[in-house]
Task: inverse folding
């Protein structure tokens, strides 16, 4: 008898058959402990009672046979072709099996091995034959464990084949059972779950295929329940421990800013601002995620949030994921402030016009790895600006994540906005905390890619969520078209037509993976080619290897209307806001991710004139095709985010924030969504009534042990 907590501390190498090289391979695959091994559940089961005897097989059927290998050999009739042939039998008959260019089968299938083959029966020269069937090696000898009715197929890891893994799991299970259940019995009961020990037994070695469903259900619930408890405890603890500043949202800056806007706020913007101002009023810091479709008007909400802190005499910070975007936020924010009469007069020297002299002036600085600027004086030096930030003379700093993390000292940072755009990953929040001196700043995280509900319950599960679910009035849907390379002329015609009406265009160049240099070369080449295609139009080029000043100059010219067609790499992907740009052409669009495409499309249709997005692509994979189809079918970011998650799988999504232990082994947050919702409810309710899980110490220990390193981020973010 051993608890999961205990099993999570026993190295996998101590299981019989897994010492040495095999253990090392398992460790590399993330199976480090006995608990990990017990979570390595079979990828499928073969039901012997439903296996067909060779003697009664009909042609054309998809079937599974269980057979022994009588002989196997490979020949190489010509270069580039190998044919592996095996003869197999099951006592009722024998069968020829062939594989093409799968010579490894000869190593995989030794004579005498018992294997399950799944595929179609064909007739070849009068005899039944199977070609290229799927193979599961049940056992390389006559091992006793394979004689049960249901044969579990545990995924092979390195040298540890299916049979070997099955035996190792069996050994581990026998020594661990019974596995006690630390989940409160009423939760088990309420959710119709079977007990934990039975679940482990039946997921690995069921006596009936019907047992595997409830067994898996139980283990999935446990996995999600642990994750949600960690999130709930973290949120709770943060709320109890952190000290923040209570801000009054209504005030001279926010009032004046709203009055100065050339439009009125949308209902959604107003509602979200209510949610934010309620958070700001509390004396504990805000941790809020602001979700809003591309173009939904998050910037204004962010500025108002910052102003609420600034008008109380504190400082704000706005962080963007790229230099281009930081530069753009700086310009955008400075413009909005100036329009509202909140910008300091240009050239106003420091100290003559401090916040105390005129409460209606907001001093803004841009600070990135290579750029420094302010909204009140030209040519300020980095050192000076750093000094003004430290003395509190600058009210708002706009920069990249990297910069905020190093070397910048605030007098009193009270509100921070983190623009994550589509990057899932909130690690920066940690570093930000340390910038604040004696209080914890209020933090608003903005994301333009709608996060599927599944992720806001897991990855972002410790944050409060606000959503701008309405676009500003007058927006027209973006007309999205997909053309193949051979039809690209249609795209250039559209660009010419839009430019003729006084509008502007983006052309996004093919993605070059892993090499910014090659990407720049390709963008430069494309710029030259398009210069010929477009003849007298004014073209500009922007890419990641331009200096920050050159990038800013190109963007400035585009914004001013001096460039008709901006040829770009994905540096324009996020946040660029030039309402007069009405058409975007994306080349080799099938190679971009779905959220990236949606972001790119969001660069147009920001003004009253609508927008056109043309995707040029000839997909070579089903996923590529599916992405382009999805883009033309819907403009709904939430629908796209769900499709994206489905196509990419949760692993890659979690990858950016989670790694290792807390990666979900059994649960799939899309397919197990209902279980996720129930586990979250139960976990948050439990933690609300018993914040330290004092009544359930075993459960507390298990969450700690099973979440491993992840508990660190859970407890710092
Ligand atoms: P995003 O959410 O993508 O960051 P932005 O904040 O850049 O969106 O806003 C997109 C565009 O919509 C900007 O040009 C902005 O001026 C405009 N906008 C924002 N709010 C409103 C509103 N309430 N009414 C009309 N236009 C608005
Ligand atoms: Mg934005």
Result:
């Amino acid at each position: 008898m051993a608890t999961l907590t205990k099993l999570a501390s026993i190295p996998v190498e101590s299981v019989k058959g897994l010492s040495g090289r095999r253990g090392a391979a398992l460790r590399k695959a993330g199976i480090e402990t006995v608990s990990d091994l017990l979570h390595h559940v079979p990828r499928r089961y073969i039901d012997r009672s439903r296996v067909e005897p060779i003697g009664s097989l009909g042609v054309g059927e998809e079937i599974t046979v269980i057979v022994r290998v009588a002989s196997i050999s490979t020949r190489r009739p010509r270069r580039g072709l190998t044919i592996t042939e095996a003869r197999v039998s099951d006592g009722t008959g024998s069968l020829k099996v062939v594989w093409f260019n799968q010579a490894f089968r000869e190593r995989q299938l030794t004579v005498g091995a018992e294997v399950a083959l799944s595929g179609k029966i064909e007739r070849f020269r009068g005899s039944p034959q199977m070609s290229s069937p799927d193979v599961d090696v049940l056992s390389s000898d006559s091992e006793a464990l394979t004689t049960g009715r249901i044969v579990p197929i545990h995924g092979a890891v390195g040298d540890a084949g299916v049979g070997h893994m099955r035996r190792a799991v069996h050994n581990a299970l026998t020594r661990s059972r019974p596995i006690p259940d630390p989940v409160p019995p009423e939760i088990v009961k309420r959710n119709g779950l079977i007990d934990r020990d039975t679940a482990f037994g039946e997921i690995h070695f069921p006596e009936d295929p019907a047992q595997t469903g409830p067994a898996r259900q139980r283990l999935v619930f446990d996995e999600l329940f642990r994750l949600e408890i960690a999130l709930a405890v973290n949120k709770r603890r943060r709320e109890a421990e952190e000290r923040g500043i209570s801000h009054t949202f209504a005030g001279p800056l926010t009032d004046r800013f709203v009055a100065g806007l050339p439009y009125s706020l949308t209902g959604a913007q107003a509602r979200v601002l209510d949610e934010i101002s309620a958070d700001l009023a509390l004396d504990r810091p805000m941790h809020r995620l602001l979700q809003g479709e591309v173009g939904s008007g998050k910037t204004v909400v962010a500025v108002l949030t910052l102003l609420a802190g600034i008008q109380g005499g504190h400082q704000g910070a706005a962080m963007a994921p790229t230099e281009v975007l930081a530069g753009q936020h700086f310009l955008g924010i400075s413009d909005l402030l100036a329009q509202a009469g909140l910008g300091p007069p240009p050239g106003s020297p420091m100290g003559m016009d401090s916040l105390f002299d005129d409460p209606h002036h907001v001093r803004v600085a841009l600070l990135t790895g290579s750029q420094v600027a302010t909204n009140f004086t030209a040519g300020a030096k980095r050192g000076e600006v750093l000094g003004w930030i430290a003395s509190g003379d600058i009210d708002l700093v706009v920069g990249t994540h990297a910069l905020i993390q190093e070397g910048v000292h605030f007098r009193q940072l009270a509100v921070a906005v983190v623009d994550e755009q589509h990057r899932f990953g909130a690690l920066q929040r940690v570093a930000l905390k340390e910038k604040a001196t004696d209080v914890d700043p209020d933090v608003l995280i903005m994301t333009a890619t709608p996060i599927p509900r599944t992720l806001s319950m897991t990855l972002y599960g410790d944050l409060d969520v606000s959503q701008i679910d309405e676009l500003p009035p007058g927006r027209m849907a973006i007309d999205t078209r997909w053309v193949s390379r051979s039809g690209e002329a249609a795209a250039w015609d559209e660009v010419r037509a839009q430019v003729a009406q006084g509008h502007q265009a983006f052309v996004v160049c093919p993605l070059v993976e892993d090499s910014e240099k090659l990407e720049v070369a390709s963008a430069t080449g494309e710029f030259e080619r398009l210069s010929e295609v477009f003849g007298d139009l004014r073209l500009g080029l922007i890419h990641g290897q331009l200096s920050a000043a050159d990038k800013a100059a190109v963007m400035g010219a585009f914004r001013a209307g001096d460039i008709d067609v901006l040829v770009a790499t994905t540096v324009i992907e996020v946040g660029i806001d030039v309402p007069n740009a009405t058409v975007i052409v994306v080349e080799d669009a099938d190679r971009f991710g779905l959220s990236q495409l949606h972001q790119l499309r969001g660069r147009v249709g920001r003004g009253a004139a609508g927008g056109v997005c043309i995707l040029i692509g000839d997909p070579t994979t089903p996923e590529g095709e599916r992405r382009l189809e999805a883009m033309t079918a819907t403009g709904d970011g939430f629908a796209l985010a769900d499709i994206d998650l489905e196509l990419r799988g949760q692993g890659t999504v979690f990858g950016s924030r989670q790694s290792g232990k807390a990666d979900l082994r059994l649960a799939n947050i899309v397919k197990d969504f209902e279980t996720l919702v129930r586990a979250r409810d139960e976990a948050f309710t439990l933690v609300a009534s018993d914040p330290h899980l004092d009544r359930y110490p075993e459960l507390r220990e298990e969450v700690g042990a099973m979440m491993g390193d992840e508990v660190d981020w859970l407890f710092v973010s």
Observations:
- The first strand starts at residue 44 and ends at 47.
- The pocket of magnesium ion (ligand 2) is lined by residues 298-299, 575 (CB under 6 Å).
